[in-house]
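> tool_call: predict_assembly(chains=two)
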Amino acid sequence: MKNWEKNVREVVPYVPGEQPKEKDIIKLNTNENPYPPAPGVGRALEKFKTDQLRLYPDPSAEELVEALAKQYRVKTSEVFVGVGSDDVLAMAFLTFFNSGKPILFPDITYSFYDVWAEVFRIPYKTIPLDESFCIRPMDYQVDNGGIIFPNPNAPTGVLLPLEQVEEIIRENSDVVVIVDEAYIDFGGESALPLIQKYENLLVVQTFSKSRSMAGMRIGYAFGNEKIIKYLNDVKYSFNSYTMNQLTIALGKASVKDEAYFRETLDKIVETREWTKKELRKLGFEFEDSMSNFIFATHPKISAKKLFEDLKKEGIYVRHFSRPERICDYLRITIGTWEEMRILIAFLEDYVN
Amino acid sequence: MKNWEKNVREVVPYVPGEQPKEKDIIKLNTNENPYPPAPGVGRALEKFKTDQLRLYPDPSAEELVEALAKQYRVKTSEVFVGVGSDDVLAMAFLTFFNSGKPILFPDITYSFYDVWAEVFRIPYKTIPLDESFCIRPMDYQVDNGGIIFPNPNAPTGVLLPLEQVEEIIRENSDVVVIVDEAYIDFGGESALPLIQKYENLLVVQTFSKSRSMAGMRIGYAFGNEKIIKYLNDVKYSFNSYTMNQLTIALGKASVKDEAYFRETLDKIVETREWTKKELRKLGFEFEDSMSNFIFATHPKISAKKLFEDLKKEGIYVRHFSRPERICDYLRITIGTWEEMRILIAFLEDYVN
């Protein structure tokens, strides 16, 4: 090792879900939406003049922030936007978790939390979920430097009722509590109204799942004016222009079409409920999911083997080899009805 | 101040150049390119299908990386891409400047370097430029934790000859040296070939100036395989999907049109040389600029006053009130020939 290499930051790089390049597959491995973005997004693209790309984008992404503020009935000063919720969350870690005390998050959760804690050298402690994969609010009543958890949780899909989310926020008023609501639109109740009551709360959402725009990279957060200002101060000292012109224009177009948004959500929820019923018939076991995926295990089938056999059939789902507690589970994204029928037909043969 | 606020990261937010919303202005304040992006960029936009936005982008931005590797005749493993060169540089600070020793950069330079050092808590020391705003390589032969400088330097526009760039890299082989070449295409000689000789070198460039794509946010870096891998490891542990689908598609289209690229560069250089001549006639003083801007002062005119008077005329240039050494200078971006004629005509009246 050369001398210059001795000062390189050591990281354990996150391994994202496979993005296979084949076209004819059923892709149920990265929780993408099976439906296209709102029709207005295509129209916004058609109207866009590439000549204007010579200019810097609006650093405050005002049009997108205004569209979100209007849709969610908050002030523009209560909205933060970023390059996917990963960017929003990373900025929040950097901004709020500087006490030196360990931050808390569940032992089974979004696999980026410990990665950010490591890269930013933030101490952390994981809190085990109970046997039904539930977060117990009282477990979070210990001295800490901040709290983050997804709701519904990933990759379990389990929703924490809003009263219990509030309990965690209320009992930890000396630190920032981040509720990562990447999957909230698929049946959960958002903590958004609580930002008016608790200034230590940051609610993070994304365009990647419910708005069918994973390819565009848009995340956002709600909080009181003060917490949003702190976040913006750090963001602007990092990179002032992260939201490109097309992101702003297409994101805005998406937010404006509430009817299409509700319609696709309803379809996904309906397909999810049908899939749950069919999986149960086949002996699969899972906690009730309020997200766009089901986290299932089968008493008689190895998850790893099934994962590989599905892949051979061109059906991609997600398997996590760690932590051990979940290595016999598969996370199956809800696709179109047709895709789920093909999956279920394959599993019917496979199980019997 | 509430308890949760005590652990908020303290930053001095960077103030980006004004992005006025009026349409009828002459915008010479943020070093944008006056010409539109290559025609292929518009065609790539037209061909883009928004339906595919439901899927995550390719985290490795392979198509864009391949286009850059081909154009610059390096291996794909020697290329890193990010959300503007600000993103690339911030990741490089985080990855390479961890020795605890102060990093070095010029006292007059891109105003983001000290901002990143502060936000990442990296100690730094600024090295004064000489009286002609030149970087003296021997000043960088002191114990340090890394080096960064723009070439040509900003906001001075002064180019350091390649032998002197090499001297800095060679004499600092124990640390990473970052050469920030945002403006290199306007007449400088890139340090790119040196990546084959020095593995402690990172060369950073951008689509924002010479490629007319500030609005799209694309930056990139060249280095040996090892240094690029370290950078990617940190990048993936931060945010795996920063380059959205449109960024990748439109960036690729831009790189492919070398003829258009050369043509716009030639026009800007020609306009710059004409503007220099005219400014000199009017008594302005400046070091020779090899960038797409001129950093000028006038012995009889207050820069601040001129800045404001130009603004009243709808002509925006950039004025830096700090450091004091440059507070009597204006940084004037090279616009179209027509825009520069209007500026010069105004100045002719103003000076006389």
